[in-house]
Amino acid sequence: MSQFLELVRTRPVVYDGSMGATILNLGLTPDDYGGQDKEGYNDYLSVVKPDVIETIHASFLDAGADVIETNTFGSSVIKAKEYGVGEQTYDINHAATALARRVADEYGTTSRPRFVAGSIGPSGLLPASEDPMLGGHRFGEVVELFVPQIRGLIDGGVDVLIIETVQDILELKAAIFAARQVFHEKGVGIPIQTSITLDTSGRMLLGTDIAAALNILEHLNVDIIGLNCSTGPDYMREPARYLGEYSTKPVSIIPNAGLPINVDGQAVFPMEPEPFARDLRDMVEHFGVGIVGGCCGTTPDHIGLIVKEVEGRPVTSRPTMPRNQVASMITAVDLAQDPAPTIVGERVNTLGSRKVKRLVIADDLDGVLNVAVSQIEEGAHLL
C-alpha cells in the first residue's frame, strides 16, 4: 500500500484550496501568461510563471494542508489545444507536477510527509450526451485524450491521481481506463481518487445520482470516491451521508465556499472559513468522511481552520462489501427487492422478441424505447 493511502487510513487528510480563484485575484497580465493568446490559461503559468504557482502551493502548505494539487486541472490534450499548446500537453503536466513535488518535499518531513495529487479535470466533452458536438466521440478516443496528461503527471512524481469535477460518468470511466493504460505501460501503480460534481438537485449534469455513481465506481475498483465543486458543503451533506454509509472506499468531500453570488460582475464565493470548516468537521465526525479540502473560493484561511477542526479525530472503518445493487447511468436498483422477487424485463431482446427485432432492423429506436418503458410500467426492476 502506498504511503498516501496508509495516511488516509490513519487520520483525516486535508487537501489544499482553490488554485483558480487565487490566480484570478492576482490580476495577472497577458504577458504573465506568455502572450495574449494564452491569457486565462492558468495551467500554462507552471511553465512561464512558476514562481506564482509555487507561492500558491506554499500558502496552502503553510496553512497545514497534507496534499497539494497540481496546477493541471485544464491540461488534457483537448484543453491545451484551445490555447494552441496541445503538443506541449506532456510538458505542461510534467512541469506542474515537478514544481508541486519540489515544494511538497521542501515542507515534508519523515513524521509529516506532504503529498502531491495530480489534478485531472473534465475534457469539455460529454461522451454520454446525445448532443453530437459534445458526445460524438468513441470511448477509445476519449481515453486517448487523457493519456499524455497522465504520463506527464506520473513522470513528474504524483502520489495520487485525482479525476475531479466530473459531470459525465462515462468520461470518468474513460479517464480511469487511461490511467490504467499508462500504469501498464510504465509498470507502476498509483492510487486513483475520483471526485464527481453534483448540482443542487443531487445529480450529475447528465442525471446520474449518487447511488448510481457509487455503484459504478465501486466496480471500477478506484481507491477513493468523493465529491467536489458546484456547491457548498450544505448541499453535499446528503450525498456525503450516503457515501459514508455505503462506500467501501475512503470518502472525500471538497466543496466550494458556498454557492457563488454576483458582486460587481464577479463571481464571489461567500462562505466564511469558520462555518465551512465546521461543516466539514461534522462530515468527518458523523459520516466517516476521510478526506476534506476546498474547491472554488477557498483560501489558506479556510484550509487552516479545517486542519484545526479535524485534528485528532478518528477515521471511521469502511464497509467491507459494496451494496448489492446494479446501476444504469441514472440510478441504482437493489438486487434484493422487498417485497421479493426482483423482476427482470426481457423483451428488449432481438433474440427473444420478434417485435423488437423488427424495430431494430427498421432502426426505430423510439419503438425500442417504448418497449422498454412498457416493461418498467409493468413492474420490471431491471431490463
Short characterization:
This protein is an alpha/beta fold and 383 residues long. The protein is built from 15 helices and 12 strands.
Structure description:
This protein is 43% helix and 12% strand. It has 383 residues and is an alpha/beta fold. The protein has 2 domains: 3-310, Homocysteine-binding-like domain (TIM Barrel, Alpha-Beta Barrel); 336-377, no CATH class. The strands form 3 sheets. The chain has an 8-stranded parallel sheet. The protein has a two-stranded antiparallel ribbon with strand order 8-9. A two-stranded antiparallel ribbon has the order 11-12.
How do the strands and helices of this protein lay out in sequence?
Layout: H1 3-8, E1 13-14, H2 19-24, H3 45-48, H4 50-62, E2 67-69, H5 77-82, H6 89-107, E3 115-120, H7 132-135, H8 139-156, E4 160-166, H9 169-186, E5 192-196, H10 210-219, E6 224-228, H11 233-246, E7 251-254, E8 261-263, E9 266-268, H12 273-287, E10 291-292, H13 300-310, E11 325-327, E12 332-334, H14 354-361, H15 365-377
Parallel strand pairs: 1-10, 2-3, 3-4, 4-5, 5-6, 6-7, 7-10
Antiparallel strand pairs: 8-9, 11-12
Helix pairs in contact: 4-6, 6-8, 8-9, 11-12, 12-13
